[in-house]
Design goal:
37% of the residues lie in helices and 4% in strands. With 250 residues, the protein is mostly helical. α2 (21-40) packs antiparallel against α4 (101-116) and α4 runs antiparallel to α7. It has a two-stranded antiparallel ribbon with strand order 1-4. Strands 2-3 form a two-stranded antiparallel sheet. The protein has a single domain (9-243), classed as Transferase(Phosphotransferase), domain 1. It has ten helices and four strands.
Length: 250
């Protein structure tokens, strides 16, 4: 895998407190493209959060950690309770079967957290948070008091992504294309972002190779080589065809 010097988006969010809306739009577009690609391959991601998005030196992002991803074909659903508490969709909390719309709920949660600094239904008591996810409407901090301004178009998209009923949620019927057709994305060139032909509005200040990594996780000392057993390597190789064309050469 590539070494992504920018580290986790989470560390950047902690540093800046909340991103500018232009930054959020740039990141959200890329994450939507990634989720759309997975859904096209019949894969539900199920673990979207700032810790699972990596920021490259150029400010472009990558979705990582597919430990909870699941193959769910058209017409099928799954019911496993999994993911990060703040990002769980109402249908999962209610024990219902679900499919790709849970990822679009998570995108709305991510978008809100990037803009405001905390998830939309956060509460330190988990059972209260779960109730808020299922029952409460999205609210925003006072713009004048907190200095956080969110455009009406951004609020509109967040509201449609955080629709409690997955049948009515944006992205359920038209998946990625339905979301990217929203007016909030009207002023950003999707093709240019896909081709990485425009600069990112947010570029990490990478001073050293490990500047954005937790010092407690950095190995100090000799690093020993590990060898993957031949039998296990063969199993890994069998599934590589699914990832053909997943990453461009850029």
């Amino acid at each position: 895998m590539k070494f992504i010097k920018g580290g986790e988006l989470f560390r950047h969010l902690v540093e800046v407190k909340h991103f500018k809306e232009t930054d959020v739009k740039f990141f959200t577009l890329q994450v939507a493209l990634a989720l759309g690609h997975l859904h096209e391959k019949k894969i539900v991601y199920r673990d979207l959060k700032p810790e699972n998005i990596l920021v490259g030196e150029d400010g472009y992002v990558l979705v990582a950690d597919f430990g909870l991803a699941k193959l769910v074909k058209d017409g099928e659903a799954t019911s496993t309770f999994c993911g990060t508490p703040e990002y769980l969709a109402p249908e999962m909390l209610e024990g219902k079967s679900y499919a790709h719309p849970v990822d679009w709920w998570a995108l709305g949660t991510l978008m809100y957290e990037m803009l405001i600094g905390i998830p939309p239904f956060y509460h330190h008591k988990q059972h209260r948070m779960y109730r808020m996810i299922r029952k409460h409407e999205v609210s925003y901090p006072d713009a004048e008091k907190h200095g956080i301004y969110v455009s009406d178009d951004a609020k509109d998209l967040i509201g449609k992504l955080l629709q409690k009923n997955p049948e009515e949620r944006i992205g359920t019927a038209g998946d990625m294309e339905e979301i990217l057709a929203h007016k909030w994305f009207a002023d950003i060139d999707r093709e240019a972002v896909t081709n990485k032909s425009i600069p990112s509005p947010y570029v990490p200040k990478v001073k050293g190779d490990l500047a954005y990594f937790d010092p407690a996780l950095v190995i100090d000392g000799e690093v020993k080589s590990s060898v993957v057993p031949t039998a296990q390597k063969e199993i890994i190789q069998k599934g590589q065809a699914q990832f053909e064309g997943f990453e461009s050469s850029k």
